[in-house]
Amino acid sequence: MKLDITTLDGAGAGSVELDEAIFGLEPRPDLLQRMVRWQLAKRRAGTHAVQNRSDVNRTRKKLYKQKGTGNARHGAASAPQFRGGGRAFGPVVRDHSHDLPKKVRALALKHALSAKLKSSTLIVVDDVKLADGKTKALAERFGKLGLSSALIIGGAEVDVNFGRAARNLPQIDVLPVQGINVYDILRREKLVLTRAAVDALEARFK
């Protein structure tokens, strides 16, 4: 399938032939959901923790004798029901990540790209390079292209001036092609690929 290529100024720059095996799939929400869940779980630190009754520095001596007082049967003062005692069933340090096959992750990325193309929110630009890193000038260009919420994927390296100008714009993310991922694609309204990014993606999935 063919898709028109534009420039940052909104002018035409020819067209590009997109691979049907990457951009022409019927999007599967279940795959996208699995991939997003895997990404969000993997980036969780898992360092949340509390003091349980074995961690609290309190005496382990029995509060009073077992029988004859008329009170409830209690042991150490570090029990959760006492003020200053340990936390019952609190979070512990653990790894939240889980396994997802590599082939499933690759397929999910293809489906995310196909979903953007099917919804007409995929834009291919010739290149993303600026003579200076001025945010105001770049915002005006984005206004002409209708980019208010977008993920922009450059080549192997993002132009320094372009990255500097775009980092102050809200809801605009810029990544090199090796950093493309399903979560960032889906969280922005539009996906902008450079010609170099399209070539790199097609070479990656061959």
Automatic annotation (TrEMBL):
Quaternary structure, from the entry: Part of the 50S ribosomal subunit.
Any Pfam family hit: Ribosomal_L4
Annotated Gene Ontology cellular component terms: ribonucleoprotein complex; ribosome
Function: One of the primary rRNA binding proteins, this protein initially binds near the 5'-end of the 23S rRNA. It is important during the early stages of 50S assembly. It makes multiple contacts with different domains of the 23S rRNA in the assembled 50S subunit and ribosome.
Alphabetical list of HAMAP family matching this protein: Ribosomal_uL4_B
Protein name per UniProt: Large ribosomal subunit protein uL4
Keyword list, A-Z: Ribonucleoprotein, Ribosomal protein, RNA-binding, rRNA-binding
GO terms of biological process kind: translation
Domain of life: Bacteria
Gene: rplD
Classification via NCBIfam families: rplD_bact
UniProt record similarity statement: Belongs to the universal ribosomal protein uL4 family.
Organism: Methylobacterium soli
GO molecular function, a single term: structural constituent of ribosome
